[in-house]
Specification:
Length: 545
């Protein structure tokens, strides 16, 4: 009961803040309670002036910052979704500030000792009381192990998981209302966006997940002399505590823009950073997807270190091949190939007008390639392509959006260090080498070998599988199962149908009851409320159509 009350209170607070900033106007036009709340709140002249004078994209950012850490992170996630938000809103959401005061050492000590099952002084030789960084999910402390290793200790904020789960439930409620009342937004899959965000933030709150990602990235970079990932200290790591090697360096945005004797060459650092990203994408198929300047450190010897592994992404073999062929198509201005790659990969429907799509790709590529190569942004080219494919009903590909967002950030960071940074010059040899290794004769032989191994395994397992099927049929235990996702839309329509029928029946009964009471000469106190409720029920039926 108390949990339900807290959830209801939180939902009311969310609606109030959104109404104060008037950021739900399209939704409020179709949802009467929200419209009434917005109207009442804006009777305050201060709020009214704020809404009149401040552009929508700024009001949205301010509202999310006021709603707290979960909504700030949700806004930061949305800022990468070029398929959902207009450009000006996406750019504004990138400015969201995650500035949270630190929690005290006693709470830090309690969390560490509870999770690692030993007193703090037995775990660390020294532990700095003041954190070096503080954010909405965790804060970081500098420490030394008993072996003399310098480490960074990341500690989860107390009770953050419960608050995040409450806010995720609120976001899901709002997404469901949007899907019900705004049919034109259903193609954006609001509930799917919230589910994806929920999975991401839950992973960020489990430091065992983050530590395993750091370990994998570290193994991928072990032979790279110019890049590094901090070592994970597994005995000092748990779901709420993450201990890794301390990196002595400066944030990449603090690196001097000019070459200074005894300091890393900014041109080399910029090229190294971008080259490592293309290696992560094409060679490893696994990349750090949150490479903003705060997560990139540069040591005195010029080695670049990545930290904070809350967001990473996989790129499948098929997706890498699609990207490589698409980049090659744009470089050679073979727009027919670019269009065909989209079709072969299943990203656009098979009934797409390929001539029109090829022309759309040409309109993206020609203006771009009319510039010097050093001025061409690979990320901007991908962004324009995703905007165009949206018009051809391309299914949303979250890993591609994360890739584009990360590349956009890295290109910006790199060009701040070295204005003449040529992303195409760095990408082309890596992409072509990958294609040669995968699509050339050697790559085809390796692919054939893998396919023959899989075929041999399948042929060996076939008799046993056939016997199991026949046994199930004979014992009347054979069932056909449908995946939940395939029935999601059908279920949604059935639920909507029941809601429409129920609302219509209730509206009819209320209207009939009010009319009978009015005809009987009863007091308006009796028949007016049922008539008002009937009106709202009729309105709900219309809204659900």
């Amino acid at each position: 009961m108390l949990s339900a009350f807290r959830s209801l209170k939180r939902l009311g607070g969310i609606w109030m803040i959104l109404a104060q900033h008037n950021v739900m106007e399209p939704f409020a036009r179709r949802y009467v309670p929200m419209r009434l709340l917005s109207w009442l709140v804006q009777l305050n002249p201060v709020i009214w002036r704020h809404c009149r004078r401040t552009p929508l994209h700024i009001r949205l950012r301010l509202a999310l910052e006021e709603l707290g850490p979960t909504f700030i992170k949700f806004g930061q996630t949305l800022s990468t979704r070029l398929d959902i938000l207009p450009d000006e809103i996406g750019q504004e959401l990138k400015r969201l500030q995650d500035d949270v005061p630190p929690f005290d050492l006693a709470t830090v000590r309690q969390s560490i000792e509870e999770d690692l099952k030993r007193p703090l002084h037995e775990l660390f030789r020294s532990f700095d009381e003041k954190p070096v960084a503080s954010a909405s999910i965790a804060q970081v402390h500098h420490a030394f192990t008993h072996d003399g290793d310098e480490v960074a200790v990341k500690v989860l904020r107390p009770d953050v998981a419960a608050r995040v789960e409450t806010d995720i439930a609120m976001l899901m409620t709002m997404a469901s209302l949007v899907e019900e009342l705004m049919p034109e937004w259903r193609r954006l899959k609001p509930r799917g966006v919230v589910k994806e965000f929920a999975q991401t933030i839950r992973n960020e709150m489990d430091f065992l997940v983050e530590a395993s990602r750091a370990q994998k990235l570290g193994e991928n970079f072990k032979d790279d002399v110019g890049m590094m990932i901090p070592q994970v200290y597994w005995p000092l790591t748990s779901s709420r505590v993450f201990t890794m090697a301390w990196i002595e360096g400066v944030s990449i945005d603090e690196l001097p823009r000019e070459r200074v004797a005894g300091r890393p060459d900014p041109r080399v650092v910029a090229e190294r950073l971008l080259s490592s990203f293309f290696k992560q994408v094409f060679h490893d198929g696994y990349f750090h997807a949150d490479q903003h300047p705060g997560n990139i450190l540069v040591r005195e010897d010029g080695v670049v270190a990545l930290i904070d592994f809350g967001i990473v992404s996989h790129v499948s073999e098929q997706t890498r091949q699609f990207l490589a062929e698409m980049v090659q198509g744009f470089i050679t201005r073979d727009y027919k190939k670019v269009a065909q790659v989209h079709l072969d990969a299943g990203y656009i429907p098979h009934d797409t007008d390929m001539d029109a799509f090829e022309e759309a790709c040409r309109q993206i590529g020609e203006p771009v390639f009319g510039q010097p190569l050093k001025d061409i942004s690979v990320a901007r080219l991908l962004a324009k392509l995703f905007k165009t494919t949206e018009q051809y009903n391309m299914e949303v590909q979250p890993q591609l959006l994360l890739l584009q967002k990360t590349l956009f950030t890295l290109e910006g960071v790199g060009r701040e260090l070295h204005p003449d940074l040529n992303a195409w010059e760095i990408a082309e040899p890596l992409v072509m080498a990958w294609m040669k290794a995968r699509i050339g004769p050697k790559g085809q032989l390796l692919k054939l070998r893998r396919q023959l191994e899989e075929m041999g395994y399948a042929m060996g397992a076939a008799p046993e599988m056939a016997f199991q099927v026949l046994e199930r049929v004979a014992n009347d235990r054979f069932h056909i199962r449908l995946h939940a996702s395939s029935m999601e839309r059908v279920e949604h329509e059935i639920v909507l149908g029941f809601k429409r029928v129920w609302s219509a029946v209730m509206a009819g009964f209320l209207f009939l009851g009010g009319a009978v009471m009015a005809a009987a000469g009863m007091s308006p106190w009796w028949f007016v409320p049922p008539l008002i409720l009937a009106f709202f029920s009729f309105f709900r039926v219309i809204a659900l159509l």
